[in-house]
Design brief:
The structure holds two protein chains of two kinds.
Chain A lengths: L8 E5 L4 E6 L7 E8 L6 E6 L4 E2 L4 E4 L5 E6 L8 E9 L12 E6 L1
Chain B lengths: L4 E3 L2 E4 L5 E6 L6 E8 L3 E9 L2 E4 L8 E7 L2 E6 L8 E8 L7 E2 L3 E5 L1
Classes of the chains: A mainly beta, B mainly beta.
Amino acid sequence: DAKTTQPPSMDCAEGRAANLPCNHSTISGNEYVYWYRQIHSQGPQYIIHGLKNNETNEMASLIITEDRKSSTLILPHATLRDTAVYYCIVRVASRDYKLSFGAGTTVTVRA
Amino acid sequence: DARVTQTPRHKVTEMGQEVTMRCQPILGHNTVFWYRQTMMQGLELLAYFRNRAPLDDSGMPKDRFSAEMPDATLATLKIQPSEPRDSAVYFCASGLQGHTEAFFGQGTRLTVV
C-alpha cells in the first residue's frame, strides 16, 4: 500500500471549516483514499473514503486532486468534539483490508 | 446499536503473568483485526482473521502472543508470559469482507509491571 504524508498537527477555530491535507504521490490506480479519526481514549472511527471522485457524507467531504496524488478532508463546521488524530490511509480495496495507520494529524479545535 | 465489545477495559498485571483479552465482533462480521497502540509505535496491526481463520499474524511476536477465534462471536488475544514492553492499548476491530469500513472497539489498556 502507498504511503501518505500528513502534517503532524493543526489548529482550527470552532465553527469554521477544517481542511486536512494528505499527500499520497505514489498512489496506484486501484488504491482508495481512506480517512479515520481517533478521539482521545477511543478506538479509531471511519470517516470517509474515495477513489477519484469527490465524496461527501454526514461527517465530512473528501476532495481528491485530478492526478490523485493528494487529497483534502474537509470538516465543514468544526466543533470541539472534532478534536482528534486524523489518519489518511491508502489501500487497495480488493485486498484483505489491512489498515496501516501512520502518525496522522492531531487536530485541535479551539473555541 | 451494533458495536465491537472488548473486555476487560483495563488490566494491570505483573510481569510473567498470562493475559487474555477478549473481543466480541459485531454480529455478522466475518473479519476481525487486533491492533496495538503505543506512544512510540502508534497503531500496529498484530493479526487478522477471516471467517475465524488467521490470514495474517506477521505483526505479532510469536513466542509470547497468540490469537484465536473459538467461535464467530469471540476473538481472544493472549500474552504468555507478559512483559513490561507489552504495556499498550489493544484494539479489536471487525468488518465485512468486501466492505470498506472497519469498526473498532474501545480497547483494552494493558499495564504490565
